[in-house]
UniProtKB/TrEMBL annotation:
Gene3D superfamilies: 3.30.465.10, 3.30.70.2190, 3.30.70.2740, Uridine Diphospho-n-acetylenolpyruvylglucosamine Reductase, domain 2, Vanillyl-alcohol Oxidase, Chain A, domain 4. Belongs to the FAD-binding oxidoreductase/transferase type 4 family. Catalyzes the oxidation of D-2-hydroxyglutarate (D-2-HG) to alpha-ketoglutarate. Also catalyzes the oxidation of other D-2-hydroxyacids, such as D-malate (D-MAL) and D-lactate (D-LAC). Exhibits high activities towards D-2-HG and D-MAL but a very weak activity towards D-LAC. It comes from the Eukaryota. This is D-2-hydroxyglutarate dehydrogenase, mitochondrial. Its EC number is 1.1.99.39. It comes from Apolygus lucorum. Residues 154-334 form the FAD-binding PCMH-type domain. GO terms for cellular component: mitochondrion; peroxisome. The keyword Flavoprotein applies.
Amino acid sequence: MNGPANHGLTSPVSQGNKGEEMPPATERPRSGSQAEQEPVAESVHEVPASEATNDETTRDATRRGTVAVPSTAITRLRISQDNPPTREMGVRSAARRFSSAAFLTSERYPNLRRGPYGSLSNSHVNTFERILSSERVLTNEDDVAPYNIDWIKTVCGQSKVVLRPKTTEELSAVMKVCSESRLAVCPQGGNTGLVGGSVPVFDEVVISTSLMNRINSVDGISGTVSCQAGVVLDKLEAALEPEGLMAPYDLGARGSCQIGGNISTCAGGLRLLRYGSMQANTLGIEAVLADGSVLNMMNCLKKDNTGYHLRQLFIGSEGTLGIVTQAVLQCPIRPRSVNLALLSLKKFGDVLSTFALAKRTLSETLSSVEMMDSVCMTSVGNKLGLKCPLQSDSDTFFMVVETHGSREDHDMEKMSCFVQEAMDKGLVVDGITSNEPSRMTNLWQLRERITESLVKDQYVFKYDITLPLPKFYEAVEVLKQKLESFGSDVQVSGFGHVGDGNLHLNVTAPAYSDDLQNAIEPFVFEWTSSVGGSISAEHGMGFKKAKFLKYGKSPEAIRLMRSVKSSMDPLGILNPYKVLPPS
Ligand SMILES: O=C(O)CC[C@@H](O)C(=O)O
Ligand SMILES: [Zn+2]
């Protein structure tokens, strides 16, 4: 028998809907004096599919895995035989191949110390290969590289191995090995996170759920789906559609993000306003715990009050308490009619008044209320070539308002009346409505692809915060003022789920700089907390925000979090350096 394969690793050193066309604008209901002065046909117009954007890419093109970090973009590193790289150099150059701004997390955060974890050895790799088969144990540097870096290229770990289990049993066996050798692990879904939660910080073993992609069952009557954690959101949607159901949430990253990752980060997204949170919609969970034991809570029931709601522990804990392997989600009925409006507004106060009006007039049909400022709209235009069909200037705000309903004529009329009333009241300057699927898709891209446009050719500091609505856009203004001295190369912008009070606050700069980061943090967290907001709305704490947890939780709450963590993961091997601040 051959001896164990040499994987080039060191030995252990430490134990450490197509709807009907809208009637022509001139036929829509009008009222009030402003409508008389300003013909609706000129202000509210429908958008021809080709005019909405000049990019015909479909919603699928927003798949982050393909648009932002295409695997084909990973060019092979040419290594001179005279000067073979060390493992460390290899990871470093793998990181730098993605972008000139790439770097190792351990370099950018030099005060960070690796925990007392074991080191990966050839013998571990051989054991993993026995459990998973060798094709599902990646050790080749080029294969491992994409799992080390986040898709916006802001953090980069140095893992040497990626494990790709297909079943809960395999993942459980892997965790038993990791627990016995105190190997730290980093669970990873679609790697679409924005807070550095899904990539390793040092050399954690990456456990990818990508091959755990089975949909177990869809129950059209009770409206539930049971699936493995690695199912990609748009694949789930495709499986739900024939049953007349849809996922209870929607994200721009739907082409790459996975259900397990969505649950672990308590993802919010574009429809939370209408369909509720991940906490509300996750009925059942199966998770593998730190010691490899399997916790099966695959409940399909809407009502289950049998004591502690344990599944909630895994929703939003970012893989620090267990790795979600399967789940049951409650799924709403797919709407028969969808209507969309893209609006432009003069000031943020009008955005809030329009939101209030939308709630009153669109009531039960309202499914999404999003906003973006002109910096964001300009960015999707300049960087991605997506043309906004509305007139605007540098102070304009934009809103996307969507309805989901069951009566096309009724829903369309409701949307028209809402836009008309908003214009009559002088809240909305210009607007477009559509219920034609490809047109709506194009209009949605103006909102959904902001993230992709902001990261293009520049560094982005991202802050995902919840704020009381009157303070929502003040965050952008306050930060602009704070960063004035950095000059016009540094831009502050805001967009997000205004319907949920969730602002995505972004600072873009030509490159990362410690000075800029130190000017923003902890200032932005202090300010958010001082006005009664939350420093993480829907992206989680990950690695980047962990040290700022005190701005979101009281000392007592943090103590309880630590005690839950140490009782469920006494060796601290599950996604270390994330969520909780270093102790
Ligand atoms: O880029 C961001 O900050 C937000 C990403 C995502 O949550 C979105 O709402 O588009
Ligand atoms: Zn968002």
